[in-house]
Amino acid sequence: MSLKKNHLYAGDALEILAEMPANVFDSCITDPPYNIAGRKKGLPWAFSSHVTMNENWDRFDNQDYEQFTKKWLEQVCRVTKTNGNIFIFGSFHNIYTIGAIAKSLNLKIVNSIIWAKPNAQPNITCRMFTESTEQIIWICNNTQDKATKWTFNYQDMKTLNDGKQMRNFWSFPVTAPREKIHGKHPSQKPLQLMERLVLAGTNKGDLILDCFCGSGTTLVACAKHEREYVGIEKEVAYLDVAAKRLHDLKRNEQSANL
Length: 258
Prior knowledge:
The protein contains seven helices and ten strands. It has about 260 residues and is of the alpha/beta class.
Protein backbone atom coordinates (compact mmCIF):
# COMPACT_ATOMS: atom_id res chain seq x y z
CA MET A 1 0.00 0.00 0.00
CA SER A 2 1.03 3.61 -0.53
CA LEU A 3 1.50 5.17 2.89
CA LYS A 4 -0.34 8.45 3.50
CA LYS A 5 1.10 10.83 6.08
CA ASN A 6 -1.16 12.66 8.52
CA HIS A 7 -3.86 10.14 7.77
CA LEU A 8 -6.33 8.04 9.74
CA TYR A 9 -6.71 4.44 8.60
CA ALA A 10 -9.96 2.67 9.44
CA GLY A 11 -9.65 -1.04 10.08
CA ASP A 12 -7.91 -3.84 11.93
CA ALA A 13 -4.40 -2.88 13.05
CA LEU A 14 -2.85 -6.25 12.16
CA GLU A 15 -4.28 -6.22 8.66
CA ILE A 16 -3.30 -2.62 7.92
CA LEU A 17 0.17 -2.92 9.44
CA ALA A 18 0.85 -6.00 7.31
CA GLU A 19 0.27 -3.92 4.17
CA MET A 20 2.59 -1.09 5.18
CA PRO A 21 6.18 -0.85 3.94
CA ALA A 22 9.04 -1.64 6.31
CA ASN A 23 11.21 0.90 8.14
CA VAL A 24 9.05 3.97 7.49
CA PHE A 25 8.20 5.27 10.99
CA ASP A 26 10.61 7.11 13.25
CA SER A 27 8.64 6.10 16.32
CA CYS A 28 5.49 4.39 17.54
CA ILE A 29 3.44 5.60 20.49
CA THR A 30 0.42 3.45 21.18
CA ASP A 31 -2.15 2.38 23.74
CA PRO A 32 -3.24 -1.21 22.90
CA PRO A 33 -6.19 -3.09 24.37
CA TYR A 34 -5.56 -3.91 28.05
CA ASN A 35 -7.65 -7.09 28.20
CA ILE A 36 -9.47 -5.74 31.25
CA ALA A 37 -12.71 -6.90 29.68
CA GLY A 38 -11.39 -10.45 29.42
CA ARG A 39 -13.83 -11.13 32.21
CA LYS A 40 -17.33 -11.93 30.91
CA LYS A 41 -18.84 -8.84 32.50
CA GLY A 42 -15.93 -6.43 32.32
CA LEU A 43 -14.25 -4.87 35.33
CA PRO A 44 -17.01 -3.78 37.75
CA TRP A 45 -17.13 -1.84 40.98
CA ALA A 46 -18.53 -3.86 43.86
CA PHE A 47 -21.83 -2.54 45.27
CA SER A 48 -22.27 -0.44 42.13
CA SER A 49 -23.64 -0.78 38.63
CA HIS A 50 -20.61 1.05 37.25
CA VAL A 51 -18.35 -0.95 34.89
CA THR A 52 -14.88 0.45 34.26
CA MET A 53 -14.29 -1.41 31.01
CA ASN A 54 -16.69 -3.62 29.12
CA GLU A 55 -15.84 -3.24 25.43
CA ASN A 56 -15.74 -6.09 22.92
CA TRP A 57 -12.50 -4.75 21.42
CA ASP A 58 -10.83 -5.19 24.81
CA ARG A 59 -11.93 -8.79 25.36
CA PHE A 60 -9.53 -11.70 24.74
CA ASP A 61 -8.78 -15.11 26.16
CA ASN A 62 -5.35 -14.91 27.80
CA GLN A 63 -3.67 -17.10 25.18
CA ASP A 64 -5.30 -15.17 22.36
CA TYR A 65 -4.18 -11.90 23.93
CA GLU A 66 -0.57 -13.06 24.07
CA GLN A 67 -0.66 -14.13 20.42
CA PHE A 68 -2.34 -10.87 19.42
CA THR A 69 0.27 -8.81 21.31
CA LYS A 70 3.18 -10.68 19.76
CA LYS A 71 1.78 -10.26 16.25
CA TRP A 72 1.15 -6.53 16.46
CA LEU A 73 4.47 -5.83 18.21
CA GLU A 74 6.35 -7.77 15.52
CA GLN A 75 4.58 -5.71 12.85
CA VAL A 76 5.34 -2.46 14.66
CA CYS A 77 9.01 -3.44 14.83
CA ARG A 78 8.96 -4.18 11.10
CA VAL A 79 7.50 -0.81 10.08
CA THR A 80 9.54 1.23 12.59
CA LYS A 81 13.10 2.22 11.74
CA THR A 82 16.02 0.50 13.43
CA ASN A 83 16.67 2.11 16.83
CA GLY A 84 13.37 3.96 16.62
CA ASN A 85 11.42 4.42 19.85
CA ILE A 86 8.34 2.37 20.68
CA PHE A 87 6.25 3.55 23.65
CA ILE A 88 3.50 1.19 24.82
CA PHE A 89 0.89 1.95 27.48
CA GLY A 90 -0.53 -0.64 29.83
CA SER A 91 -2.02 -1.32 33.24
CA PHE A 92 -1.19 -4.15 35.63
CA HIS A 93 -3.64 -6.28 33.62
CA ASN A 94 -1.36 -6.44 30.58
CA ILE A 95 1.93 -4.60 31.06
CA TYR A 96 3.80 -7.67 32.29
CA THR A 97 2.58 -9.68 29.30
CA ILE A 98 3.79 -6.97 26.93
CA GLY A 99 7.14 -6.73 28.71
CA ALA A 100 7.65 -10.50 28.63
CA ILE A 101 6.88 -10.61 24.90
CA ALA A 102 9.27 -7.73 24.24
CA LYS A 103 11.98 -9.62 26.10
CA SER A 104 11.22 -12.81 24.16
CA LEU A 105 11.77 -10.82 20.95
CA ASN A 106 15.13 -9.67 22.37
CA LEU A 107 14.12 -6.04 22.16
CA LYS A 108 15.95 -3.38 24.13
CA ILE A 109 13.79 -2.03 26.95
CA VAL A 110 15.21 1.41 27.68
CA ASN A 111 12.98 2.54 30.52
CA SER A 112 9.58 2.33 32.09
CA ILE A 113 7.49 5.39 32.89
CA ILE A 114 4.81 5.57 35.56
CA TRP A 115 1.80 7.77 34.92
CA ALA A 116 0.29 8.69 38.29
CA LYS A 117 -3.30 9.96 38.42
CA PRO A 118 -3.81 12.26 41.42
CA ASN A 119 -7.58 12.25 40.80
CA ALA A 120 -8.02 8.54 40.03
CA GLN A 121 -11.43 7.01 40.75
CA PRO A 122 -11.67 5.43 44.22
CA ASN A 123 -11.67 1.72 44.93
CA ILE A 124 -15.07 0.97 46.41
CA THR A 125 -14.30 -2.64 47.33
CA CYS A 126 -11.78 -1.58 50.02
CA ARG A 127 -9.97 -4.88 49.37
CA MET A 128 -6.90 -3.42 47.63
CA PHE A 129 -5.01 -0.19 47.09
CA THR A 130 -6.70 2.36 44.84
CA GLU A 131 -5.43 1.75 41.32
CA SER A 132 -4.04 5.14 40.34
CA THR A 133 -1.20 4.46 37.89
CA GLU A 134 -0.54 3.18 34.41
CA GLN A 135 2.81 2.23 32.94
CA ILE A 136 4.60 2.96 29.70
CA ILE A 137 7.26 0.59 28.38
CA TRP A 138 9.92 2.39 26.36
CA ILE A 139 11.49 0.08 23.76
CA CYS A 140 14.32 0.76 21.32
CA ASN A 141 13.60 -1.10 18.11
CA ASN A 142 16.71 -3.23 18.07
CA THR A 143 18.23 -6.15 19.92
CA GLN A 144 19.68 -5.86 23.40
CA ASP A 145 23.28 -5.92 22.14
CA LYS A 146 22.83 -3.68 19.08
CA ALA A 147 20.44 -0.95 20.26
CA THR A 148 22.04 2.48 20.11
CA LYS A 149 21.37 6.17 19.54
CA TRP A 150 17.67 6.10 20.33
CA THR A 151 16.09 9.54 20.49
CA PHE A 152 15.91 11.11 23.93
CA ASN A 153 15.62 14.87 24.15
CA TYR A 154 17.29 15.03 27.52
CA GLN A 155 17.86 18.76 27.66
CA ASP A 156 14.27 19.55 26.68
CA MET A 157 13.01 17.32 29.49
CA LYS A 158 15.42 18.92 31.95
CA THR A 159 14.18 22.37 30.93
CA LEU A 160 10.57 21.27 31.45
CA ASN A 161 11.57 20.05 34.92
CA ASP A 162 12.98 23.38 36.17
CA GLY A 163 16.57 22.48 35.30
CA LYS A 164 16.55 19.10 37.03
CA GLN A 165 16.75 15.64 35.45
CA MET A 166 13.30 14.40 34.49
CA ARG A 167 12.28 11.37 36.52
CA ASN A 168 10.16 8.51 35.23
CA PHE A 169 7.24 9.23 37.59
CA TRP A 170 4.83 11.61 35.86
CA SER A 171 1.79 13.04 37.60
CA PHE A 172 -1.06 14.13 35.34
CA PRO A 173 -4.78 14.26 36.17
CA VAL A 174 -7.07 11.95 34.21
CA THR A 175 -8.39 13.36 30.95
CA ALA A 176 -10.35 16.57 31.45
CA PRO A 177 -13.93 16.91 30.12
CA ARG A 178 -12.82 19.69 27.76
CA GLU A 179 -10.76 17.09 25.86
CA LYS A 180 -13.86 14.92 25.36
CA ILE A 181 -16.21 17.42 23.75
CA HIS A 182 -16.34 15.35 20.54
CA GLY A 183 -16.93 12.04 22.31
CA LYS A 184 -15.50 9.77 24.98
CA HIS A 185 -13.06 6.87 24.90
CA PRO A 186 -12.81 4.65 28.01
CA SER A 187 -9.01 4.81 28.13
CA GLN A 188 -8.39 8.25 26.62
CA LYS A 189 -5.10 9.74 27.78
CA PRO A 190 -4.65 13.40 28.77
CA LEU A 191 -3.11 15.51 26.04
CA GLN A 192 -0.35 16.85 28.30
CA LEU A 193 0.86 13.32 28.95
CA MET A 194 1.06 12.49 25.25
CA GLU A 195 2.74 15.80 24.48
CA ARG A 196 5.49 15.00 26.96
CA LEU A 197 6.10 11.62 25.32
CA VAL A 198 6.21 13.21 21.87
CA LEU A 199 8.63 15.90 23.02
CA ALA A 200 10.83 13.42 24.88
CA GLY A 201 11.20 10.68 22.30
CA THR A 202 10.68 12.22 18.85
CA ASN A 203 11.96 15.14 16.78
CA LYS A 204 10.30 17.74 14.58
CA GLY A 205 9.47 16.28 11.20
CA ASP A 206 9.43 12.68 12.47
CA LEU A 207 6.70 10.33 11.30
CA ILE A 208 4.90 8.76 14.26
CA LEU A 209 2.64 5.71 14.26
CA ASP A 210 -0.24 5.02 16.62
CA CYS A 211 -1.72 1.68 15.58
CA PHE A 212 -4.46 1.81 18.26
CA CYS A 213 -5.17 5.52 18.02
CA GLY A 214 -8.58 5.60 19.71
CA SER A 215 -9.75 9.19 20.04
CA GLY A 216 -6.50 10.48 18.53
CA THR A 217 -4.63 12.05 21.44
CA THR A 218 -1.23 10.87 20.17
CA LEU A 219 -2.00 12.35 16.76
CA VAL A 220 -3.13 15.69 18.21
CA ALA A 221 0.10 15.87 20.25
CA CYS A 222 2.12 15.16 17.09
CA ALA A 223 0.28 17.79 15.07
CA LYS A 224 0.75 20.39 17.81
CA HIS A 225 4.50 19.86 17.85
CA GLU A 226 5.33 19.63 14.15
CA ARG A 227 5.49 15.85 13.89
CA GLU A 228 3.74 13.89 11.15
CA TYR A 229 1.52 10.97 12.06
CA VAL A 230 -0.39 7.89 10.97
CA GLY A 231 -3.25 6.53 13.05
CA ILE A 232 -5.05 3.19 12.83
CA GLU A 233 -8.37 2.47 14.55
CA LYS A 234 -11.06 -0.10 13.84
CA GLU A 235 -13.86 1.51 15.86
CA VAL A 236 -15.52 4.03 13.54
CA ALA A 237 -16.96 6.09 16.40
CA TYR A 238 -13.48 6.73 17.82
CA LEU A 239 -12.06 7.55 14.39
CA ASP A 240 -14.75 10.19 14.06
CA VAL A 241 -13.73 11.71 17.39
CA ALA A 242 -10.06 11.74 16.35
CA ALA A 243 -10.87 13.38 13.01
CA LYS A 244 -12.91 16.11 14.69
CA ARG A 245 -10.15 16.82 17.22
CA LEU A 246 -7.54 17.13 14.48
CA HIS A 247 -9.86 19.36 12.46
CA ASP A 248 -10.40 21.63 15.46
CA LEU A 249 -6.66 21.89 16.06
CA LYS A 250 -5.99 22.84 12.45
CA ARG A 251 -8.83 25.39 12.44
CA ASN A 252 -7.61 26.98 15.68
CA GLU A 253 -4.05 27.21 14.38
CA GLN A 254 -5.26 28.84 11.19
CA SER A 255 -7.32 31.35 13.16
CA ALA A 256 -4.31 32.19 15.35
CA ASN A 257 -2.22 32.93 12.26
CA LEU A 258 -4.75 35.36 10.75
